Amino acid sequence: MNEKNFEYLRDQVKYSGFGDGLEAQLRENIKKQPLEFSVHHQTAFGKDEVESTLNFKKSSVTDMYFFNNYQTSVKPDQAAEKVNQTFYIGKDNNITLKEGYNLLSGRAVNKDLTNKEGKIYNAWLQLDFKQTDSAGNFKLKQFHQNYGFDLEKELSRLPVKELQNNQDRGRVLDSLQKGNRHAVTFLENGSEHRRYIEANPQFKTITIFDANMHRLHTKQSKENKQENTSRHEQKVSSELATDDAPGGAPEKKTKKSKAMSISQ
């Protein structure tokens, strides 16, 4: 058995969020030298059950194995059906198990990604549950920096007690960027209230839940909705003015998409 290959795969599996529990299965399968094999992992985040199958394949020219992808299914608490997705493992742009769980839960994850030219850029990722690719996977939407969502700015609008301490503030930001629904304390009318928040880059806001996980409709979300509606109306008005201008055909405009699928 190629011991160095085993150690590399063991660490790759660990840092992809699957921990140390698969080490024995991994070693046993590599010893048998099959062309490909899978190992299974089961865990839970809160009350949500998460099952994964990690797929490995042997090189056609050496005795080395590669961690190609993992298929994850999430069964939200009290939900009737599971949701599934395959996440591919490569040199760049990998999604960890916890990030995959957050994406399948409908939340957005902030990542530094590498494009085809090797340049690093930052974007929020979110699954589009209305669109699937030829393999049946949900497509990934991207919201780049120029999309206009500023997490720190939106967070500063909220009466969050943890923002008063730099260390706690950093923990909140880091958790939201990983796609977590994070517990915080709201200071309202002289009282403290338990709240849960998550980043919502598509609508340029932060979604808020009460202690019972019921979504709250806040002044912030209403203002952002009105602002986005106003911008849309201004854009439409501007385009109509251009199209109706006398003296020739309307000018053609090229629209850039602000949400794209992540390249694998």
What report would you give on this structure?
Residues 219-264 are annotated as: Disordered. Residues 220-236 have a biased composition (Basic and acidic residues). This protein has 264 residues and is an alpha+beta fold. Among the domains are: 3-95; 151-221, no CATH class. It contains six helices and eleven strands. It has helices spanning 3-18, 23-32, 97-104, 151-156, 166-177, 219-243, and strands at 36-45, 48-58, 65-75, 83-88, 109-114, 120-132, 138-144, 182-188, 191-200, 205-209, 215-216. It has a four-stranded antiparallel beta sheet.
Question: Which SSEs are present, and which pair or pack?
Answer:
Layout: H1 3-18, H2 23-32, E1 36-45, E2 48-58, E3 65-75, E4 83-88, H3 97-104, E5 109-114, E6 120-132, E7 138-144, H4 151-156, H5 166-177, E8 182-188, E9 191-200, E10 205-209, E11 215-216, H6 219-243
Antiparallel strand pairs: 1-2, 2-3, 3-4, 5-6, 6-7, 8-9, 9-10, 10-11
Low-pLDDT runs of 5+ residues are 228-233, 235-264
Largest sheet: 4 strands, antiparallel
How would you write the strand order of the largest sheet?
1-2-3-4
Straight-line distance between termini: 30 Å
Oligomer: single chain
Beta strand %: 25-35%
**Percent range for helical residues?**
25-40%
The gross shape turns out to be elongated
Biased composition (Basic and acidic residues): 220-236
Region (Disordered): 219-264
Protein name: DUF3945 domain-containing protein
